[in-house]
Amino acid sequence: MSALICGSLAFDTITTFPGRFAEQILPEQVHILNVSFLVPTLRREFGGCAGNIAYTLRQLGGEPLVMAAVGSDGQDYLARLTTWGASTEFVRVESDTYTAQAIIITDTDNNQITAFHPGAMQSAHLTAVPAGRSDIRVGIVAPDGRDAMLQHAEQFAAAKIPFVFDPGQGLPMFNGDELNKFVSQATWVAVNDYEGRMLCERTGKTLESLSKSHLRGVIVTLGAQGCELWQQGQRTVVPGVTAEQVLDPTGCGDAFRGALLYGLERDWNLERCVTLGNRIGALKIACRGGQNHVIDRSVLGL
């Protein structure tokens, strides 16, 4: 059975600032902010939420179907997807624009500043979630073009495919009514703690009340502290896993979601799914980039 992953494919330019953003940004001067960060290291990686999630899911032995859009420079990405066994039948190629690009600066506290050019991602809504595909067991609406996120959520619901709503950095694009509609269509919601607070503020609901709805669970990732799992008003803290090294947080949330989908494909209970997610997140943060970690399934007991 497969997981349909709706989200971005992007090229990441990743840099490291050997200092702290907090020491460079004066709070009383943010209205005239003008800062420059010297970044001695620079790497280019394959990224984007859909690509990163699919990579981890495939490493675990799952079957990812990627639904996304790339631009005229995206052939290398398509080739990469096929080399590790992800289907590209739902990847759209837009010849008159570039593949989405992210420029990420990480400081010594693992805080990040990201600039994102959407490029071909803005056409992702032109590919629809297929109805009547019995091989698609579960899906996810991850950060993508605004229209794509709205339409793919509606299409998942219409096709009766259970899916995770994972707004990520796309959350600020939507108002309270739109977010409430996403939640009403979704089967699970996954956010980090900051996104969770914003989601509650905009919808006018608490995590507890969200979890008391039709949702099978609300998952709030807490980085090294693990995650909170809300089910029918009950909060469970699932502890984090200590990483061997902390090299690069880029893509850790996506790695977690790949593991989450792996468990959901197999009808695991949600606590077991997020426990695996915490282990994979700790493994990923010890590697640079969102698609370079190697998962030994035998060590994980899979």
Examine the coordinates and then state which fold CATH places here, giving the name of the CATH topology: UDP-N-acetylmuramoyl-L-alanine:D-glutamate ligase
List segments where confidence is low: pLDDT < 50 over at least 5 consecutive residues. none
- In N-to-C order, the SSE pattern is EEHEHEHEEEEHEHEHHEEEHHH
CATH class: Alpha Beta
Tally of helical runs: 10
Give the strand line-up of the largest sheet.
5-4-1-8-9-10-11-12-13
Q: Estimate the global geometry from the Cα principal axes.
A: globular
Oligomer: single chain
- Share of β-strand residues: 15-25%
Measured distance between first and last alpha carbons:
16 Å
- Could you describe the largest sheet, including whether it forms a barrel? 9 strands, mixed
CATH superfamily, by name, is Ribokinase
Helix percent band: 25-40%
Using the 3D structure, state the CATH architecture: 3-Layer(aba) Sandwich
Please explain how this structure is put together.
The chain is α/β, with parallel strands linked by helices. The protein has one domain: UDP-N-acetylmuramoyl-L-alanine:D-glutamate ligase (3-Layer(aba) Sandwich), CATH 3.40.1190. The protein is 32% helix and 25% strand. The protein has ten helices and 13 strands. It has helices at residues 21-24, 49-60, 75-83, 146-159, 176-185, 193-203, 207-211, 252-265, 270-284, 297-300; strands at 2-6, 10-16, 41-47, 64-70, 87-93, 100-106, 112-117, 136-141, 163-165, 188-192, 217-221, 227-231, 234-238. The strands form two sheets. It has a nine-stranded mixed sheet with strand order 5-4-1-8-9-10-11-12-13, sandwiched between helices. The protein has a four-stranded mixed sheet with strand order 3-2-6-7. A hairpin with a 2-residue loop joins β12 (227-231) and β13. α8 (252-265) packs antiparallel against α9. The longest helix is centred in the C-terminal third of the chain and has 15 residues, at 270-284. The chain is globular. The mean pLDDT is 94.
